[in-house]
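Write out this protein's structure.
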Amino acid sequence: MYGLVKCELLKLKRQKVIPISIIITFIPILLGLFSFKTNYAVFKDVNTSDWLKAWSQVGTFYAPIMLPIIASVYCAIIFRVEYANGNLKIILSTPVSRKSIYKSKVIIS
């Protein structure tokens, strides 16, 4: 299983997906901080710390909006690589079970 996960990481490294995914991860953080800054008067009345208020805004944007988008893009990229040159047929003909192949792809995505 470790070898399959390592192989999937190498495929993603060649696709240059990791830097793009890191940049995409910071977008909801910036959106949450911008929302916090624009609505600071609303949050000023609550008796909690500023960091907790800012973090709640980040969670508001990250969880329902960006997380499913990022996960689906990762999955699409992972499976696109397999279908591009017919690699999925080759991978499925190896003595590794389909379940472990799909588990490794899910772990990476």
